[in-house]
Description:
The complex is a heterodimer.
Chain A: H1 4-16, H2 18-53, E1 60-65, E2 83-84, H3 85-94, E3 99-114, E4 117-126, H4 130-134, E5 137-141, H5 146-150, E6 155-159, H6 160-167, E7 176-179, E8 182-191, H7 196-199, E9 201-205, H8 206-214, E10 218-219, E11 221-226, H9 232-249, E12 260-264, H10 265-308, H11 310-318, H12 323-356, H13 372-399, H14 402-407
Parallel strand pairs in A: 4-9, 6-8
Antiparallel strand pairs in A: 1-11, 1-12, 2-10, 3-4, 3-7, 3-11, 5-8, 6-9, 7-8
Helix pairs in contact in A: 1-12, 2-10, 2-12, 2-13, 10-13, 12-13
Chain B: E1 2-13, E2 16-28, E3 33-37, H1 44-51, E4 59-64, E5 67-68, H2 74-84, E6 85-88, H3 100-111, H4 115-128, H5 144-156, E7 162-166, H6 174-189, E8 193-198, H7 201-204, E9 209-214, E10 217-223
Parallel strand pairs in B: 3-8, 3-9, 6-7, 7-8
Antiparallel strand pairs in B: 1-2, 1-4, 4-5, 9-10
Amino acid sequence: MFDRDLWREIFQSIQKNKLRSILSGFTISFAILIFTLLFGIANGLQNTFESFFVKDASNAIFIRTGKTSKPYKGNQTGKRIQLANEDFDFLKIKNEAKIEHASGRIFKNFNVAYKSNRNNYNIRAVHPAHQFIEKSLMTRGRYINLADLQNTRKVAVIGKMVSDDLFQNKPAVGKYIQMQGIAFQIVGVFEEASDDNENRMIYIPINTAQSIYEKNDEINEINLTYNPSMNYEEALDFGYLLKKQLQQRLTVAPTDQRAIRIQNNAEGKKGIDQMMFVIGILILFIGFGTLIAGIVGISNIMIYIVKERTKELGIRKVLGASPRAIVSLILLEAISITSLAGYLGIFIGMGALNFIDDKLEAYFIKDPHVDTPLLIAAVIVLIVAGCIAGYMPAKRASKIKPIVALRAE
Amino acid sequence: MIALQKLHKSYPIGKGFLHVLKGLDLHVQEGEFISIMGSSGSGKSTLLNILGLLDTHDEGTYELNKQKIENLDEKKGAKWRNELIGFVFQSFNLIAYKTALENVAMPLFYRGTPKKERLRIALQYLDKVGLKDWAQHLPNELSGGQKQRVAIARALVTQPKIVLADEPTGALDSNTSSAIMTLLKEIHNDGMTVVVITHEEDIAAQTERIVRLKDGVITSDEKTAQPKITT
């Protein structure tokens, strides 16, 4: 099979029968090209969908409070339920294994000034873990850390647009901004590609806000992400469990829907997962469809090639070619053409996808790409299909009586 | 060289059988120049196929080069064809995309001869048929007579025991025909056993022995008054 002479024979046959070779090669290249493009574009669509839905971590749970809507254990309707540091610690300790990250939130809106530049911004006072819940990407400096909390430091992390507003192009990290008359040092700048509201946000340590502005230990909202190893059902149950724990702790009726509200992103996640699943099936369908079209194409061509070569094969047999030599001649030629053409198809397809890149983002196609192993697998499938399709007629041709083959014109 | 005894061959046709060869007895000595004549349907093509190991017989015995031919499978057939027999066909049967030289070298490829050696031997035989200067030409650049010469060179390149020529002049004009027959005669004079299958009297007359075939039996077998050419 790895006889140099045989390969020379095959390459001569490919070279000297250009039309035939190009025809079969074209089918393969085209099938792989279409396969690559469709798969890439489908992947691009999926990327777009993903980026729509994952502004926040998809495993986030938000806990908010309000006034009670039902009387319970001597408390009248309309009692304000307020979260505090102890409640946060209580939930964290009680559900340690199930919580990935957790942070409290206090909301403020201040007039913020740097030198003569001033503007109103939303302020969030948070724990360090908030960075991972909101998926804030640091472009300069650092996020709020544990030491800031322990020392009640007056530090701030600002969004990209805040930085642009107040500092224009100058570096912001290390500078001091005035918030409600109190100076905060900027320690970091973050950016969120998909959410401009976030980019207008300023973050400060939660207990700094409590001690300077609130003079109490209250928290507006608790925000956490559950352990991603939990499945959908477990995540929903965890949401209900949190609610129950807080209802007991804060003396709220179990049926009260208003006093303690849980927003569980797991609920939405199921919908997204289903959509992704549908897109995935679509991709598979497209991929297999193209492959099957390619298989049919290469099969037809192989049958045609063997038929065209019947006479030549007859001559070869008369001159002493064994049936095995005939079959390997046909198959190795098919494999050579298919591999070469497949490679060419991948090459062009990848080139096209690289060229498209993010140019079609307006059409919801973002970063289209196909994994190389998948493409190689597709080429192998086509090669195998070509071999099977070529083997039958080649086998038949090798069995045909040479004298019959020679008579065929 | 060739010994046939009570050779029978029939082909299935529909539900019945067509009995083509009905008990042939034929002996060909080494170095003979013999023609087998017959009109179409006489069974001469079938006989050629059996002689050329392209088909198997049903009954009787066939000995080629003192070897009994039986239980011939495809692989053995291919090997023996390559070693024992050189074929010349009416329609030349050259491979269109290969040069004259490559066509001649083809049988040696299936014998496993290295490329250089193969081409060297092939060129020798092309020279022998007077086409050394045409070695790099493709078949469609050659005349009919030249093509047949290439085919003859190809038949000889493996130094076979017999050359089987099936209507070798059937596609050629009379001048070229006689040139080809002269070439076959020369090959015969070198000691080769040559069997020509033909339906043309004047072609058969140029051989040394004529076997006539009709309806699957031999009707006559006689030597011609052919003076042996000595060179």
